[in-house]
Structures are given as C-alpha cells and as structure tokens.
C-alpha cells in the first residue's frame, strides 16, 4: 500500500512530516511530493505544467521527515500533484493521498478554495482515498495532536469506498489532553474569514480585504465547534451528477 503526502503550504512545512509518520504507522509506503512554493487558495487547480508539459522537481525534504521517506519538491499546485500521482508520475499509483497538515483551519464552504482540500478532492475523483488535515493556528505548536486525529480518521476512511468523498479534519492547536473530542460537523456558512470587496476611486479598480468571522454565530458548524476546542470531521463529496434534478431539456435549439 502506498500513501502520497502533499500540501499547499509548500515543502518547508512540518505538517508534511506529521502525515508521513501517520502513513508509516498505518503500514503504508510513504512518498512526500509537495509544492516547491506555497499554493494556498489553489483549490484543485492543475496549475504548474508548462506548455510542453514539463515540471521542475527537486529532492528536498520538510523538517523532521522520518528516515527513509523519499521527498520531492515540485513546481506545481497540490491538485496537479495528486492528479499526476494518479497517473503514476511518481511511481506506482497511491492508495491514499494525505494532504496537510495545513497551517490554519479549512472550514465552512470556503473549503472549495483550499489547496489542501483540493489535493484530496483531486485524488478522490481518480478513485483514490483522500484526506485533508488542518491545524487551527497560523504557527502551530501541537503537531502531535493533529497526528493523533489524522490517524483516527485514516483508519475510518480506508474502510469505505474512495469515491464516497474527502475526509476533512480540523484540529485545535491544543495538547491532545485538552481537546474535547472529535465530532462530525456540517460546514459553516463560509469559513474562518470573510471577504469584502470595495470599489476604489480609480476607474475599474477593486480592493479585496479579509476579516475573521465570529465563529460563535454558527456554533454547531465545523468552525464553531473548532473554536470551542473540538476537533471536527466532515465528509466532502466529489463533483457528482444529480439524476433527480429536473432540468429544462430541449429537443432542438
């Protein structure tokens, strides 16, 4: 069994090593392939390949990578990395893609923009198990807590068909003993932040700003539970066709 570990924070993030160890402990052969630079907000983008299809790769390793784990930095978005792995670009096709551990939460409907979630979603659309893991801090301290939650999530995930969806985990940046537990959670209305768009005096110019939301407004959501010390788990469905939708068909145009 093979596990591909990737992220959107880039090859220099310790979160890669956390998930590499989770994969090793679960009995997987682990390969780390991560973006050479940060790709936060890249969603499942296939950005990175040049016109002739070439990608720059370099043998680099994240901090604290377990001994014996091969690691590559690639000039590509995490969604493209998962896509390439599905087509055996880095050796045999992986059985699971572990994405993260992200610095900062990936909650709410904003997960559609997340490169961390995007890599796992790209995997699932190719029939590969996908899991995204995030820590609720921009400069996390309790990486081991994320590893414990990820190990629990992985054990559950691989008992189900890969096509069921991405398992999205969010973990408080707390010692494990201080985490209240792990709960299934619906997605918050947006996420950890909200965007505001303003027009400027200059014709055609716009300014986008972001501000943290009051998570208590949606206390039962993934964002709300996370803010009160719970780790959360949400199953995200890959793009799918709805056969029940009544769509306005035409016999001819």
UniProtKB/TrEMBL annotation:
Q: Which domain of life is it from?
A: Bacteria
Q: Does the keyword Metal-binding apply?
A: yes
- One short Pfam name that applies is SurE
Q: Which residues cross the membrane?
A: none
| Substrates-to-products reaction catalysed | a ribonucleoside 5'-phosphate + H2O = a ribonucleoside + phosphate
For the Survival protein SurE-like phosphatase/nucleotidase domain, which residue ranges apply? 4-188
**What's an example of a GO molecular-function annotation for this chain?**
3'-nucleotidase activity
- What's the EC number here? 3.1.3.5
Keyword flag Hydrolase = yes
Keywords attached to this Swiss-Prot or TrEMBL record, sorted alphabetically, are: Cytoplasm, Hydrolase, Metal-binding, Nucleotide-binding
Q: Which Gene3D superfamilies match?
A: Survival protein SurE-like phosphatase/nucleotidase
Which PANTHER family did the record assign?
5'-NUCLEOTIDASE SURE (PTHR30457), 5'_3'-NUCLEOTIDASE SURE (PTHR30457:SF12)
Family assignment? Belongs to the SurE nucleotidase family.
Specify the protein name. Answer: 5'-nucleotidase
Lineage, top ranks: Bacteria, Bacillati, Actinomycetota, Actinomycetes, Micrococcales
């Amino acid at each position: 069994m093979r596990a591909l570990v990737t992220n959107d924070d880039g090859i220099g993030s310790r979160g890669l090593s956390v998930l590499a160890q989770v994969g090793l402990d679960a009995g997987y052969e682990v390969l780390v392939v991560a973006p050479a630079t940060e790709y936060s907000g890249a969603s499942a983008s296939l950005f990175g390949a040049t016109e002739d299809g070439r990608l720059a790769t370099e043998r680099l390793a994240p901090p604290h990578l377990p001994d014996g784990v091969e690691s590559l930095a690639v000039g590509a978005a995490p969604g493209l990395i998962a896509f390439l792995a599905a087509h055996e670009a880095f050796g045999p096709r992986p059985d699971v893609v572990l994405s993260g551990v992200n610095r900062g939460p990936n909650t709410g409907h904003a997960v559609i923009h997340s490169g961390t979630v995007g890599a796992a979603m790209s995997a699932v659309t190719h029939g590969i198990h996908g899991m995204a893991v995030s820590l609720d801090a921009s400069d996390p301290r309790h990486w081991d807590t994320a590893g414990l939650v990820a190990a629990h999530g992985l054990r559950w995930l691989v008992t189900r068909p890969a096509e069921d969806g991405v398992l999205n985990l969010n973990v408080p940046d707390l010692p494990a003993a201080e985490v209240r537990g792990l709960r299934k959670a619906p997605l918050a209305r947006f996420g950890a932040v909200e965007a505001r768009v303003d027009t400027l005096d200059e014709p055609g110019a716009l300014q986008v700003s972001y501000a943290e939301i009051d998570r208590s407004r949606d206390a039962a959501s993934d964002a709300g539970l996370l803010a009160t010390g719970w780790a959360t788990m949400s199953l995200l469905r890959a793009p799918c066709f709805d056969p029940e939708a009544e769509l306005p068909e035409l016999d001819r145009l």
